[in-house]
Structure formats: structure tokens, C-alpha cells
Amino acid sequence: MGAGHAHKLFRHGHSPVHDLPPHCKLAAVFCFVVVVVSTPREAMWAFGLYALLIAGAAALARVPAGFLLKRLLIEVPFVAFALLMPFVVPGEQTHVLGLSVSVPGLWGAWNVLAKGTLGVAASVLLASTTELRSLLLGLQRLKLPPLLVQIASFMIRYGDVITDEMRRMSIARRSRGFEARGVRQWGVLAKSAGALFIRSYERGERVHLAMVSRGYTGTMPVIDEVTASRTQWAYASSLPLLALAVCLLGWTA
Amino acid sequence: MHVPDGFINAPVSAVAGVVAAGAVAVSLKGARRELDEKTAPLAGLVAAFIFAVQMLNFPVAAGTSGHLLGGALAAILVGPYTGILCVSVVLLMQGILFADGGLTALGVNILDMGIVTTVVAYALFRGLVGLLPGTRRSMTAAAFVAALVSVPAAACAFTLMYWIGGTTDIPIGKVFTAMVGVHVLIGIGEAVITALTVGAVIAVRPDLVHGARGLTAPLKLRIDGELVDAPAREPVAPAPAPAARSNRGLWATGLITALVLAGFVSFYASANPDGLEKVATDQGIDKKAEEHAAKDSPLADYGVKDISDARISGGLAGVIGVGATLVVGSGAFYVVTRRRRAKDEPAGGGARTGEKV
Question: What percentage of chain A's residues is helix, strand, coil (to nearest 5)?
Fold first, then answer.
């Protein structure tokens, strides 16, 4: 699970990547991931080139490598799954470091690891160079239904409020001598979750009333319309286009 | 259980994306009917709640702990439409912001964890609540069963998608036993916590539990020296209306889900010979590879061949099948909503003026 400190994901900066309009970046990252996923897994060098492309974009955005690598840790559960693959997939066997593993399994593990890691790296780069609010504006610009964007923005805005409320409840529990040790304490924790739900729901009703009293009719006014010039689009599309070239080479080679 | 990029192949991911988008569109309509203009703030706050509650750790034994997935809880507390919306938004934000789950696998993730969990849990909960007596304990029990089944159901859905479009040929039996086995265990924890949470909410604000709407209304009593039935004509009258509405909404969802599932199964049946063929060629190539003392080239061969026949044809069949299903499904949905709109027009107007006052 990602932790709830949403704004810590964003690295403030003024690089060419930061300055791109959000919807260009979203489209570029999505196309890049699609290209990566559709590359044949046998073209190992292609994945190396993709990693270089991502590293180049990160350098352009002045995102330090350590920051990027630390955020890649979210992938760990699936790495464990991928490491199991060579042992459970049937097929031709080979010997690596004295262990008998299957060749299709090794290919499968490589496939998931390479594509998954590149996908995560691309998303991390996007999230660390784009502010939350402009990401949502970008999604709206990319024709995500406005209601969905509104729900997402309410979730982002109140995520920290609700998380803080949960933390305060936890402090209240602990200051009364509560310690969660095992299954027996689930009742108390579940009651907290129930209370949290009621508080969130009632807060939602209050937020709605406050909005209605300020003239809300079901749609949000868009004040800052984001636009992208042709050069910005061209600039953003260089990443997926380069990746596409690599992918086509991978198919023909 | 967030699926990363490259785990499920491109055609199946695309089909899952289309199905998920359709389901989200249907639930957007449904949620707007349930909550009206309150949809955005309420669904947003509930999504924030689910996001927060996924971080609430429940200790299992020394050192290990689990957390709630929240699909069943959302479905029972706020209804299937809003539940699907909330879980989908949480998954979308997790994918984009936290890189938790791949961008191309977003459809797979939403279909799996958002839609299957929510729909299964809500259908089971409503069914059980209808059968059992309307007490708090039976509702807790129904929540328990609904959450218990919903998690392995999601695992089954994942296995199904993996069977159609997995990028690695792990024998499907192994995947199934591993996934369902692990998720039955997770499901037990989820069920206990969901049931306790629903019980806690029912104890304080029974009116907030969407799945139990209409059942709490007849219990209303007032103490005037003695126990008397409350003359609650006004509060009771609107209560059955949303219940009937949500019931019909449930039928519509069930119908569409059935159609979508049918599309999937037929896609499956048509793709299955392909899958068999694939295994056959696979093993043939394996044999050849052994004869040739395992060179690198046959593997490359196998990759191209594989994609040129089995996957693309399977994917096309899937897209066409699901497209046809969507046309039929949305047609049915349109008829249902139109009839309802015609019927509800006067009632809706009255309710709105009432709200303004």
C-alpha cells in the first residue's frame, strides 16, 4: 500500500518535464507503457534501451535516481511472485547456480519483472513531476467523465483529512491503554473503522451542504483550463515515439 | 493483488479495460440516480474512507498484519453503484499516483477488485438479508458471508483472465489453487472485519447502511409511556421508494453483468481451441528445441508465431463478442431507464421541491 502523504510524491521543480501540460504527460506515459508491454520479451536489449529512455527523462526532470529507486519498492510483492515462476512453470529444464529451473518460467519471470518495473518507473516519474491538481485537470482534459474527476479530486482533497482523523482515533485508543496485538483486538479496530465511515459520510453531507450554499449545481466550474501547444505535444511525444522505434526494431530483429 | 504491467497480455487488458469502462459508466448513472448532485462529495469522501481504511492494519499474529480491501464493505455501506465508483477511483489514483498496479492493467484491476468484488458481495448480501429475519445479527452474518465469498470470487476472476491472457504458461490448476487458497484465507480476515464494521455502523446509524435500507423502517417505535408504533407516515413513505429503486437497479446491474460474463465465457469457449493449439505447438517446439540442443532461435520463433495466431485472433474475437454484448446490454439498460424516468417524473419533481424547502 502506498502511504497517505499524497503531496510527498510530488517533487517541486522547474524542469522542462515539470512544465509540460499534464494531459500531454499522461498520454505520453500511457503510450510508453503500452509500447513497453507489447514488446517481445526475447528482445532483451530493447528493455535496456527503455530503461535508458526513462533514466534520460528522469535526468531531464532532475529527479534523483535514489528517489526513483526508492519508489520502485512498491513492486516487491510481485517480484516475489516472479521469482517463484521458474520453479512452478513446467517445460524444458536448465541449471542455474545448481538449481533446476524451467526455461519458459525464466522467460515469464523476466517478462513480468522487466515490463512491470518499467511501468512502475514511468508512473513514478509522472507522479513526481506533476502536481495532483494538474493531474486531475489533465485527466479531465483527456475526457475522463467530469463526475469521476470530481470524485477523484474529493478523494485526494479529503484523503489527508480522513487519514488524520484515523490517526487521531489511533492516538485516542492508545492513550487509553489499547494495544493491537492480535485477532482479539479486531473488534475495537473494526468499531473504529465503522466510526471512521460515519464521520466520513457525515463530513461528505456537510461538504455538500456547504457547496450548495455557495451555488453548486452538480458541476464544477473549470477556472484554469489547461492547453497544450503543438510544440509541447511534440516534445511530450518524443518519449513514446522513441520507445515505438525500439519496439519495432525489437519485432524485426 | 494489484496486477502490474506485462502480466496479462495486451488484447485481454484492452477488453478488460472496455468492460471496466462500461461498468463504471453504468455505475456513474446509477450513483447519480441514488445520490443526485450529492454524488461527487459523498462518493469522494467514501473513496477517501476506503483509501484510509486500507491503511488500517489489523494484527493477525506476532509481527504479521493484514488490511481491509474494502470492496464488500463499500458495496454494503453505500450500495453497488457508488461502491464500484469509489473502489474504481481508489484504484485509478493508486495506479497513477502510487504506481500501485500497472497503467495498462488498470482495466484488469478495476474489473477484478472493483467490480467483481462489489457486485458479488452486494448480490449475496441482499439475497441473504432477504432470506434472514431483519435483525442486526443476521445483517452482520450476511455481511460476513458476502465479504467471505467476494474475495475468492475476485481471485477466480483474476484466474480466468490469467487463463485467457496470461503471459506465462503456468498450469492453470496451480494458479487457481494458489490464488483461491491464499484468498480464502484473506477472505476470512476480510469477512470478520467487514462484519464487525457493518455491525458497528448499524448500531449507530442504521440508516447509513445502504444494503439494509427498507428493513430498518418497519422497526420504528416511539416510547410514550408505553411502546407505540410511530405515526411515521412521512419518514416511512420515502423509505420503500429508494429500496424499490435500488432493487431494480440491482436487477439491471445483474442483467448486464450476466451479459458481460456470457460474453466472456463465449470468448473463452472460442479461444479455448486456440489455447490448446498453443500448448500443442508449445510442446512441439519444446521437443524440437531439445533435438536441436536448445538453441536461442526457436524461442524467438515461438514468440512471433504465438502472437501472430493465438493471441490476436483470440483478442479480436473477444473485442467483437464484448462489443456485441455491450450493445445488447446498453440497449436493455436504456429501455429500463427510460421506462423508469417516465414513471418517476412527477415523484422526482416533488422530491426536489421538498429538498429545496
Answer: 75, 5, 25
